[in-house]
Design a protein that fits this description.
alpha/beta; 7-stranded mixed β-sheet; two-stranded parallel sheet; 10 helices; 21% helix; 12% strand
Length: 441
């Protein structure tokens, strides 16, 4: 008998990075919500279920067509900007109250309001690293307060700080994850699900060339269709893997993409076609595992960077591999900004390392994300690859909105890793059929 795909919803969904990871891990995402109107074109373009634009504080949980307790997972990353206001309110009292008039209201409370309403088997909540060291006005640790509220709802809670690079994402991005379940099992130990590690020597920092076969090989959609002797196709998530491989790097992620000024235009503009096939295993995966000629003639989406003036281009050229300047360190006559007001950095990403954290600030300027080999800032597609969005995930919005959406997202590959651990460890669903949308047919 075929198991159906577990059901989930995505709160504070943005463009859908977490949704993408949940789907790739075998979940059927039923609904998403975000307050930012510009995320809807992107979300709708890449996902086929309803996404609501609105203030979650004023939104009642919708009817998902499920029986009581049938929802498997509530997931989301609520903003939590004012840690000092986190208090020990009774979450179950939020069900009928107006939260918009409470200045102490925190959006994570709405996450828990939805958990209280649906009573899912499990939840997954993402937040910033700074929560770990934050205290409220009463001197209580914020993480302890929030965990206590989750436990009051009947959930066993685990809190873990994770770096996305440890799960195959070519980017250092530390985020805090709360995992809870109410079905009496242990939450996954996510340290045991890590697939990647720091390199141990210079050789391990080099690009990891793809050795996988093309589509003429047996289709390996399943994450479980391997023998112990077979090389496991990227990505592969399992508890306590036999070996972990070196981190994926900027080179692994983006150096197969064509220059954005193929005819020498200044400033750099965009490129709309691939000019070579994938080189690394990560590139091969992120393109959708194409065959030897399948990349030819395919449209390359969002490979566009902002325009640069000649001063910026010259400054970018001065930077060596993986080096950075504080704005104030640059001679005054070459300053892009007043150093007393904008203590920012110019940083060229190191091709031999995971990138620094991709941030939403990219929509304002790209000075901290200068291409490792070209005198320009990175494109939307390059930022998306560093976040592990597949190449067929399009951002059909203005470039500034696209950069912001990429920077705000949960890396899909990290989300897939955690969701796979939850699916297997908590929900006990490990059959290959859950990884295919046809599993419910």
């Amino acid at each position: 008998m075929t198991e159906s795909r577990p059901k989930a919803i995505d709160l504070f969904c943005g463009a859908g990075g977490l949704t993408q990871g949940l789907s790739d891990a075998g979940f059927d995402v039923l609904w998403g919500i975000d307050h930012e109107e510009n995320t809807k074109p992107t979300y709708d373009h890449n996902h086929d279920h309803e996404m609501t634009v609105g203030d979650i504080r004023e939104t009642s949980p919708p009817d998902l067509g499920l029986e009581e307790g049938e929802l498997d997972l509530v997931a989301g990353g609520p903003p939590c900007p004012t840690f000092s206001l986190v208090g020990r309110s009774k979450i179950n009292s939020l069900e009928g109250q107006s939260t918009t008039t409470d200045e102490r209201h925190q959006l994570y409370e709405d996450f828990l309001r939805f958990v209280a309403h649906y009573e899912p088997k499990a939840f997954l909540m993402e937040n910033v690293k700074g929560m770990l060291s934050a205290a409220n006005d009463d001197g209580e640790d914020v993480v302890d307060v929030i965990s206590g509220q989750m436990e009051d709802l009947g959930y066993e809670v685990t809190v873990k700080l994770l770096d996305s690079a440890d799960f195959g994402v070519p980017q250092h991005r530390e985020r805090l994850f709360f995992i809870g379940n109410r079905i009496g099992v242990d939450n996954p130990d996510l340290d045991e699900w890590k697939t990647h590690r720091p390199p141990s020597n210079e050789e391990e920092k080099q690009i990891k060339f793809n050795t996988a076969g093309g589509p003429e090989e047996e289709n390996q959609e399943s994450l479980h269709a391997y023998t112990e002797e077979e090389e496991k196709e990227f990505p592969h998530f399992e508890e306590s893997p036999e070996r972990r491989v070196p981190w994926n790097t900027v080179a692994d992620a983006i150096l197969d993409l064509p220059p954005v000024s193929p005819n020498g235009e200044t400033p750099p503009t965009q490129a709309e076609e691939y000019t070579m096939g994938p080189v690394s295993e990560y590139q091969y995966w992120i393109r959708g595992r194409p065959g030897p000629d399948e990349w030819e003639g395919r449209t390359l989406y969002n490979h566009e960077c902002r325009g640069h003036n000649m001063r910026d281009l010259t400054l970018y050229k001065l930077l060596g591999e993986g080096t950075s300047y504080i704005i104030g360190d640059i001679p005054e006559e070459h300053q892009p900004y007043r150093s007393d007001i904008f203590p920012d950095k110019l940083k060229k990403q190191n091709p031999k390392e995971p990138s620094t954290t991709v941030v939403a600030h990219l929509y304002k300027d790209g000075h901290m994300f200068i291409h490792p080999t070209e005198a320009r800032s990175i494109t939307v597609r390059e930022a998306a690859r560093l976040q592990s969005f597949p190449d067929d995930f399009e951002f059909p919005v203005a470039r500034t909105h696209a950069f912001k959406q990429v920077g705000n997202a949960v890396p899909p590959l990290l989300a897939q890793a955690i969701a796979t651990a939850v699916r297997k460890t908590v929900l006990g669903i490990s059959q290959d059929s859950t990884l295919s949308p046809e599993a419910d047919d």
